[in-house]
Amino acid sequence: MKKILVTGAAGFVGYAFTKELLAAGYCVLGIDNLNDYYDVSLKRARLAELEGQSGFTFQQVDLADRDAMAAMFESEKPQIVVNLAAQAGVRYSLDHPHAYVDSNLQGFVNVLEGCRHVGVEHLIFASSSSVYGANTKVPFAVSDNVDHPISLYAATKKAGELMAHSYAHLYGIPCTGLRFFTVYGPWGRPDMAYFKFTKAIYEGKAIDVYNDGDMMRDFTYIDDITAAMMKLLDHVPAGDASWDAKNPDPSFSNAPYRLYNIGHNHPEKLMDMIHILEEETGRMAEKNFMPMQPGDVYATYADVKGLEEVIGFKPEMSLAEGLKRFVSWYKGYYGFSENTKSVAGHKN
Q1: Pair 320, 276: CB distance under 8 Å
Q2: Strand pairing partners for 234?
Q3: Distance CA 287, CA 282 (A)
Q4: What count of other Cβ atoms lies within 10 Å of the Cβ of residue 203?
Q5: Rounded distance, CA 195 to CA 207, Å?
Q6: What predicted TM-score, i.e. pTM, was given to this entire model?
Q7: Distance from C-alpha of 297 to C-alpha of 299, rounded to nearest angstrom
Q8: Is 153 one of the annotated active-site residues of the chain?
């Protein structure tokens, strides 16, 4: 089996995808810098689920450390690279811009350079629905122009797509970029709204509901994400001779490069998500209705025709069932019962 490097292996998607790779018999090298953007104990708990499994090794490496990344690529020589490490979060980028430059720009260049020097067979990298920025035409299509980001986070993810294309063109590195749409589920990120709302509801605290609750998100369950990624491993892009340089489509190229949306293709109202959480927790949320946050967007909605054509992608998990599974995990992980507000288990 091929050796696969997964960056951000202690993160939400990285952990979930690594589990799938190991179950399929791949040899996986996971790296992560284990930063404190959110609770490090959750990242370590994810790693604990992976460690000891046959075929898995882990190194604590920061993508922005050029020398460490070069040494790792030279010693390990992965055949496939899945870059899921990034500084995430739209709102955090308003106050911590350099963290995004270090990880999403400098760090990704170090990944691309490593891929170039060892001649990887396929680079799959995470982008984001945030790149659609000020666009209002829905559903968002990968062929759309995305030159108007409204957060630095979005700008760095768009820049990553452009950098990957340049390496595909110059060095023939096959690159597949995935624009994730609001990924959720068990072991998720505590900075995401569904996670923060669940925490606040159980602790009897108010939740901040932006734009007075009038927002929509294309919530995509983690298992649908990882199932699609597993199928894409063997779909290595090649240059497409039909690409028209006079009328360029940004979703593909005459270089070995492809971009895909990976979403549920069905936006849900924010208030509906909150109501589901109330039903699953058995508690009403106290709501602070707030104006729209800088850098945020009203709606996300993925056109997934590209993935449908290539791998037959059809997301299966409903929001109601997905949130039910998340709340069940949350109660077990954090030690909540129906009658307690305190955490009995892991640190919250």
Answers
A1: yes
A2: none
A3: 16
A4: 12
A5: 11
A6: 0.94
A7: 6
A8: yes
Q: Is 318 exposed, middle or buried (0-12, 13-18, 19+ CB in 10 A)?
A: middle
How many Å apart are CA 235 and CA 4, to the nearest integer?
15
Q: What is the per-residue pLDDT for 293?
A: 82
Q: How far apart are the first and last CA of the chain?
A: 38
From the list 132, 153, 260, 334, the catalytic residue is: 153
Max Cα separation, the chain?
A: 64
pLDDT digits (tens, 9 = 90+) for 88-136: 888 888 889 999 999 999 999 999 999 999 999 999 999 999 999 999 8
What are the residue ranges in the chain where pLDDT is below 70? 337-348
Positive or negative, the CA dihedral 170, 176, 182, 186 is negative
Taking Cα atoms as reference points, which of 344, 322, 233, 331 lies closest to residue 282? 331
Residue 10: Cβ-neighbour burial (10 angstroms; 0-12, 13-18, 19+) = buried
Amino acid at 76: E
CA dist., res. 348 & res. 127, Å (int): 28
